Amino acid sequence: MSEPVVEIRHLNVDYPTRIGVVRAVDDVSLTIERGEVLGLVGESGCGKSTLGMALLRLLRPPGRIAGGQVFFNGRNLLELGEEEKRLLRGERISMVFQDPMTCLNPLQRVSDHLVETIRTHRPEVSKKEARAQAAELIDRLGIMTERLDDYPHQLSGGMRQRVMIGLALALNADLIIADEPTTSLDVIVEAQFLELLRELQQQFNLTILLITHNIGVVAELADRVAVMYAAKLVELGDVYPLFDAPLHPYTRGLLRSVPNIRLTDDDLEIMSGVPPDLYNPPPGCRFHPRCAQVMDRCRLEEPPFREVQPGRSVACWLY
Amino acid sequence: MSDNLVEVRGLKKWFPVQKGFIERLVTRERQFVHAVDGIDFQIRHGEVFGLAGESGSGKTTTGRLILRLVEPTEGSIVFDGVNLASLGDEEMRRLRQRMQVIFQDPFASLNPRMKIGDAIGHSLEIFKVATGEEKRQRVLDMMERVGLTPARFFYDKYPHQVSGGQRQRIVLARALMLHPDLVVADEPIAMADVSVRALLLDLMLQLKEEFNLTYLFITHDLATAKYICDRIAIMYLGLICEMGTLEQVYRHPQHPYTQALLAAVPVPDPHARRVKRLPKGEIPNPINPPPGCRFHPRCPHATAICSVEGPSLTEVEPGHLVACHTRFPA
To answer: Which of A253, B23, B127, B150 is the most buried (most CB within 10 A)?
Structure first.
């Protein structure tokens, strides 16, 4: 097997605050293989977005990486200088956020965004050539080429999100981090966008880290799924076995608490309680206060995250 | 007494478009956003009536019209036999005790400087129902019933000190203090954490039984609507395109838009992955909605008549109404 695009080892991210330190990502180890879509799911505040930002070294101060290593194409990201970091972010890693309007420059046309991106990274390309490439690209994304000289506010939300993907493609990025890419889109536009993303992923063998709270989006797109709860990675596995037979009680609860439009049986599993306060996480397993299968051990000892089946890891004393 | 708690007839709301100074000099023509453009429906006593659609479909405006938070351009709303348009301000204020609303963002709808208990009991004071110790007792009772326990512990806290799920419970408790007949819930769980949503829906259903409530449940999420609604209306660009019982609309959708919407909902099951037949494009501008059927530019089954004549909402089987010239059963 080829080298993974990303290898995260025992990553910790801290947010120091006035009333204490919040560890938003706690001892997470994870790899992202070339050409896969890794879905990172969890509820708000579980640390999934922080993990994505840590990969880009874009944590907003006072957030900081407090330990661990992140390898990108074999190089330790945490040892890079500012200039190297800048090049890496644009060239090798691309990001798609929830709200594309805040990522596009309102004073620049779509063509400006694309041409500038193409030429920054390949200065030998002429303006004219870059423009032709940009037109080809947005056509591929299902946007009429007449819209090339539109400003972002003239585009719909779905089109803006397509332009964001276009920027990632223009760079030929090794990794696309998509953080809630469809959350601001309407359901039909969301489905169109997911379909486009799947097509492009297959065509260009893209590597995507898909960060979302939407279980349906993960089920549509991911090859593997990582589940986070209260700053910890609790389960990791291929999408089919993970959905068919979730091991961690939290994963099971999360998957079963989502209404499924295709099922006639409407009994949702109802999880009691709320995620813990990270200033003061519960001892032992962080899920134990909400877990139906809690044992004495869970209250005292933290379960290690370990492989229990080939390609399947879980942090739970049941296994 | 009629079976219907709410009857909506020919309801329209057009919002004037703000124009720049020059534009006003150049053209006199006024433009309007056709937010709600002539809809009829009834909400029966004790049911959960869903209003679903994408953003810009007019579902939220419809909810606000029923509460008379905005005045209709045309049409009437009859609440329990009373035409709301005929009421003066004071009468409307009193009637409002019987209709309450829950919004999407519980943080935005709670005063950050008001203690939770005071916020929940505020309506009792406004309508001079109870004060002092009696108010406190009633609030504590209600807090227990929506699961804000221990109630005494939460009573003196402020909204920022509790979780999002608990905030939505506060909003629910506040809405129920005056024992309303109708609760308009506009995306009540959209902001809640995934693992808390099922719990809130379940609580809403439980409270509905306990307090004999009728819900107007406004949502963009058809999977959630399926869990809680009895009947549902699908809106598109200010009009209802299909309406019926859950079974009718979800199992036998006849409007191509309903079919597309149902197909587009992400399914939390990787085995359900497949290529979907999706309509092209996005919702057009509600200032100049397309002529004829508003869905025709995106409709895979559109025929010549669809671009000329708007279809009316017709009953295709008892209780199942569809506004489509072609009607392709799924």
So the answer is: A253
Nearest chain B CA: its distance from A80 CA (Å):
36
Choose the mutation target among A161, A225, A258, A266 for the interface with B, i.e. most B CBs under 10 Å: A258
Tell me the pLDDT of chain A (319 aa) as tens digits.
Answer: 578 999 999 999 999 988 888 999 999 999 999 999 999 999 888 999 999 989 888 888 888 999 999 999 888 888 888 888 877 776 788 888 877 777 888 999 999 999 998 888 788 999 999 999 999 988 888 888 888 999 988 888 888 888 988 888 888 888 999 999 888 888 888 898 898 899 999 999 999 999 999 999 999 999 999 999 999 999 999 999 999 999 999 999 999 888 888 876 667 778 887 788 888 899 999 999 999 999 999 999 999 999 999 999 999 999 9
CA distances from A303 to A10, A246, A288 (A): 15, 17, 11
B230: Cα separation from own chain's centroid: 14
In angstroms, what separates the C-alpha of A241 from chain B's closest C-alpha? Answer: 10
Task: Tell me the nearest-neighbour CA distance from A67 into chain B, angstroms.
Answer: 29
Task: Quote the distance between the C-alpha of residue A161 and its chain's center.
Answer: 15
Residue A188 · residue B284 · CB < 8 Å: no
Give residues 224 to 243 of B whose Cβ lies within 8 Å of A. Answer: 224, 226-227
Min Cα–Cα distance to chain B from A216, Å: 4
Instruction: From chain B, pick out residues whose CB is under 8 angstroms from the CB of A44.
Output: 164, 193
pTM of the shown model: 0.88
- A–B interface: beta-carbon pairs under 8 A: 127
With tokens 């493609």, the residue in question is: A169
Q: Which residue is associated with the tokens 């994408």?
A: B54
Q: What distance in Å separates the CA atoms of residue A195 and residue A220, rounded to the nearest whole number?
A: 9
> B263 touching A, CB under 8 A?
yes
Chain B, nearest residue to A224 by Cα = B270
CA–CA distance, A291 with A152 (Å, rounded to integer): 46
- The ipTM of this complex is 0.83
The whole-angstrom separation of Cα B303 and Cα B295 is 12
CB–CB contact A214 B165 (8 Å): no
Out of 3.40.50.300, 3.40.50.620, 3.40.50.10740, 1.10.10.10, the CATH code matching B4-229 is: 3.40.50.300
Domain boundaries, chain B: 4-229
List chain A residues with CB under 8 Å of B199.
270-272
As a whole number of angstroms, the distance between CA A88 and CA A85 comes to: 5
